[in-house]
Amino acid sequence: MVGGEWPHAMMEPHRGALVAQAIARKLAQAMFDQGLSANALARRSGVNRQVITNVLNGTVWADTLTVIDLEGALGVILWPDHVQWRIPAAGEAPEGYNDEAEGTSAAGSSAPDSVG
Q1: Which of 52, 30, 24, 55 lies closest to 39 in space, CA to CA?
Q2: Which of 44, 54, 89, 111 could form a disulfide with 96 if both were Cys (CB 3.0 to 4.6 A apart)?
Q3: DSSP, res 83
Q4: According to CATH, what is the number of the domain 15-74?
Q5: Based on the number of CB atoms within 10 Å of its own CB, is 13 exposed (0-12), middle (13-18) or buried (19 or more)?
Q6: Can you give the pTM of this predicted structure?
């Protein structure tokens, strides 16, 4: 992390870290939108409550099967469309990055999926 608080911090230029951050933001937003606690989502998804909390806090990066189980329980795609992202230099926000909503940059590349 370059600065700020997870999951809205400015990240080092590492695609995996940016994807993990986007997943954590989308997970938090989906839980908020559906009024779900970590305990309730754990019961619904079969994912351990502590794993959910750790993903939200950024202490672990969710594995593929965890993301699939959470997406199925929430009915929301958590995995961001990161293929078109231009990975920034250290301390620079990704092109088209918008922490308020998902969006597309002027160049048409997908921005990191985020929640606002």
Answers
A1: 52
A2: 111
A3: T
A4: 1.10.260
A5: middle
A6: 0.70
